[in-house]
Amino acid sequence: MKSTLLSLLTCFSLAAGLASAAYTGTDNGRSLQRRKSTALIHPVGLPALPSGSAAAASAAAAGLNLTDIQGDVLIGMMKNKELFFFFTINDAATFKSTLQSDILPLITSTTQILNSPPITAVNIAFAQTGLTALNITDSLGDTPFATGQQSAANSLGDPSTTNWQPEFTTGQIHGVILLASGSFDDINDTLDSIKSALGDSIAEVYSLEGAARPGSEAGHEHFGFLDGISNPAVSGFQTPKAGQAVVNPGEILVGETGDTFGTRPSWAKDGSFLVFRQLKQLVPEFNKFLADNPLPVSGLSPEQGSDLLGARMVGRWKSGAPVFLSPLVDNPTLGADPSQNNNFTYAEGGNTVSNSTDQSKCPFSAHIRKTRPRADLGLPESSSNKHHIVRAGIPFGDELTDDEIASNTTQINRGLAFVAYQSSISNGFSFLQQAWVDNTGFVHANTGFDPIIGANGGNPRTVGGLDPTNPSAQMTLVTDFVVSQGGEYFFSPSISAIATHISV
Ligand code: N7H
Fold first, then answer.
1. Number of CB atoms found within 10 A of residue 88's CB
2. Mean pLDDT, residues 227-237
3. Which of 183, 194, 318, 413 measures 20 to 30 Å from 386, CA to CA?
4. Whose CA is nearest to atom 8 of ligand 1?
5. Average confidence score pLDDT of the chain
């Protein structure tokens, strides 16, 4: 088996060379065309990844080892096709030795992703139950990780596990293998090799296929909004674009500068906690809600009023243009410009604090304002907000059918395979969902829930500030347009930790 995998690896290197030879156009990465088979997409409007050489130079200056950090952690929402393979470990000894001999060489580092991405990129992460099954007993210093996502369901606003994918409730998921490529054929070839190497030492519990949406919707999530614009710039990895949060590597990577969130064993350095959530999206119902409730702004048609309601719920137009910069109608040119589409703070005229009563340009409840309040908490953001995450998810499920559009009713399971990386789940995802998104008094009294992902145990949600003509009005949303189908908390170790600690 080892020799099969080695020849597969050789194919990867050759094909990676071909793939990079097939680049056409540069334009700062935005209009870059790649061979269909590559794992990453480059949607217009998303900041380009740094070149391998630029990342190597800034990583060296910051003392970051990008060859040791798994490739998904710092990259963000740019995958073409991705398979999440959730497994249980049946035989720890065989699993460890095969991990060392056969799987480790397949694990893709950040450096590889930037320089010569393989046809199929592979990453692996472990739940607490998986580390325990492997007899790794150190505490990683993060309570949500240690106790698992199921026990957090109610505190995250889920109506217990009623809507959860059953496999997330059995306690059997020990780990996840993430495979990203340009095609599911390539993904399945690699997965078959991995499964045949591991044999009965593991068993599949559940799999989920994610894919970028087709054509011009690539990079947009299922409600239609461009996603992945505003991930933090991690010092030592990226040069920030205007308006991007700049974070110490330790906010995302365990054990790096700025990780003040817990006591961790030394082997955990350069790992990151991976939050996985399968979030179903009720797209026809969302569209119907917008159509039924156009905002009554003078000069706007009902259709424009409906589009404005959707944009104010998110805080951005479908093109990615922020409502704070383009308050009444979309500005696709702005949405497409990664040097400008994140260039705002919610404060006017260079102030370091935003106006605490003015929601004319963007509601306090808007999804992107709830999850990153910028000047609402005062600038510089590096002092006021230590709760950043790198979002690295991908849509799952097919496009809307004619029947769904005609009936305004979801018939196919679709949504976002939400993935977020952080050096502390308590400080990252859990904090965002509990302390900000679901806290009706954040960022000011009567802000209400985040209308996109806010959750109230399945009960109606009040949301403030959506109507700019009557900003003190509260809307009551009786439908959750995003429904949690559960997930798990994982730790994505550094590649050297897998080599020297997890697989021995
Ligand atoms: Fe969100 N959406 O389509 O409405 N998200 N999100 N998210 N989200 C963002 O800036 C969406 C979810 C964050 O820096 C955009 O990249 C949907 C969870 C954060 O200004 C859009 C789902 C959590 C940001 C969406 C979903 C977050 C962000 C704008 C679920 C964490 C950056 C594009 C189905 C608890 C904020 C962009 C900033 C942006 C949507 C989930 C957090 C369009 C549909 C669970 C931190």
1. 20
2. 96
3. 318
4. 368
5. 93
- The answer to whether the CB of 52 falls within 8 A of the CB of 33 is no
Average pLDDT over residues 341-348: 98
Write out the H or E segment, with its range, that includes residue 81. Answer: strand 81-89
- Give me ligand 1 centre to Cα 318, in Å: 13
β-bridge mates for residue 125, sequence order:
176
Q: How does residue 37 score in pLDDT terms, banded at 50, 70 and 90? A: low
C-alpha to C-alpha distance for 418 and 230, rounded to whole angstroms: 15
Instruction: Give the model's pLDDT for residue 177.
Output: 98
CA of 359 to the centre of ligand 1 (A): 19
pLDDT at 377 over 50: yes
Work out the angle between the directed axes of helices 302-314 and 283-292 (0-180°, nearest 10): 120
Position of tokens 């994505």?
Answer: 492
Query: What's the whole-number mean pLDDT along residues 360-365?
Result: 98
Give the catalytic positions in this structure: 227
CA of 388 to the centre of ligand 1 (A): 12
Rounded CA separation 388/421 (Å): 9
Largest CA distance in the chain: 69
Residue type at position 435 = A
For the Cβ of 429 lying below 6 angstroms from any atom of ligand 1, the answer is yes
State yes or no: pLDDT of 370 exceeds 60. yes
Listed residue (281, 371, 368) closest to 323, CA to CA: 368
387 close to ligand 1 (CB < 6 Angstrom): no
Cβ pair 100, 251 in contact under 8 A: no
Question: Which residue is listed with tokens 């189908």?
Answer: 485
The pLDDT value recorded for residue 22 is 29
Atom of ligand 1 nearest to the CA of 415: 34
